[in-house]
Design brief:
The protein is of the alpha/beta class and 268 residues long. It has 10 helices and 10 strands.
Length: 268
């Protein structure tokens, strides 16, 4: 990555968020460099997807700030937040593509909703976005006829339809076979390297995290805050926090190891 990538694209300071009176995470702080792939990591139920919702404007945090470039997102006017949100491309875990529309129609939908482009231009751009994700021959195919990996790619193509500069991905490799997951990893790398895109990725898929992510944050469910920062490869090799080490090396956490050892000596 070039020197421009070191400039913060997103800055999260002291963020506390949750649902009603239930706090999911508190005092979370990190920065996302431009033209990087940033991972939001942690075990199930720790608040990874909830953090992403706060970052894209779907959940107002109870404390802290989120700056997009130099703008405090949640302190901005609704009009300004809408303007910033148009710079986000978002792919949720389910893919959330419309089953009643072809791949091309799914990708074209945001352009029909938010631009004044004519029909021919929209169709051409939708086909271009599909070609970027390797689906140029699937424009007229219905989602039911697509594999899981292809559906994810349609979701990404649609997220790219308004030319965002930040792409948010929620568990992009979930449910994919290893080959499809690798192809998706390669696509995400191409979006960063070839198109200068900033990617924020929620994931607990270790192969993808280790293969493509430049930086990241690790959320902990027990303490309700971030307990480690850094590239997944660095955390795997050098982080001494037992929870992070167990996650990154696919080992049992220390408390489970103790319980397992005790169980092995009982009975008999």
């Amino acid at each position: 990555m070039d020197t421009e990538s070191t400039e913060p694209k997103l800055r999260v300071d002291g963020l506390t968020f949750g649902y009603g009176a239930r706090i999911v995470q508190h005092d979370v702080s990190f920065t996302v460099a431009g033209r990087s792939i940033f991972a939001i990591m942690g075990g199930s139920g720790c608040g990874k997807s909830t953090l992403m919702k706060a970052m894209i404007g779907l959940l107002r945090p109870s404390a802290g700030t989120i700056h997009v470039d130099d703008t405090d997102y949640w302190a901005a006017t609704e009009e300004r937040r809408t303007e910033i949100g148009r710079r986000f491309g978002v792919v949720f875990q389910s893919g959330a593509i419309w089953s009643s529309m072809t791949a091309e129609e799914n990708v074209a939908l945001p352009m029909r909703m938010f631009t004044e482009l004519d029909d021919a231009s929209i169709r051409a751009l939708a086909q271009l976005k599909l070609s970027l994700v390797g689906l140029d021959t699937a424009t007229s195919v219905m989602p039911a006829a697509l594999s899981g990996g292809m559906k994810k790619r349609v979701g990404i193509a649609r997220a790219l339809s308004l030319d965002p500069d930040i792409l948010f991905l929620d568990e992009p490799s979930a449910g994919l076979d290893p080959i499809s997951a690798r192809r998706l990893d390669d696509l995400i790398l191409e979006l960063r390297d070839g198109f200068g895109m900033t990617v924020v990725m929620v994931s607990h898929e270790l192969p993808s995290l280790l293969a493509i992510c430049d930086d990241g944050i690790f959320l902990d469910a027990d303490s309700g805050t971030a307990i480690a920062h850094g590239a997944p490869r660095v955390l795997r090799d050098s982080c001494d926090h037992p929870t992070v080490h167990a996650f990154m090396t696919r080992q049992r956490p220390p408390d489970e190891q103790v319980g397992s050892a005790r169980g092995s000596h009982g009975g008999g």
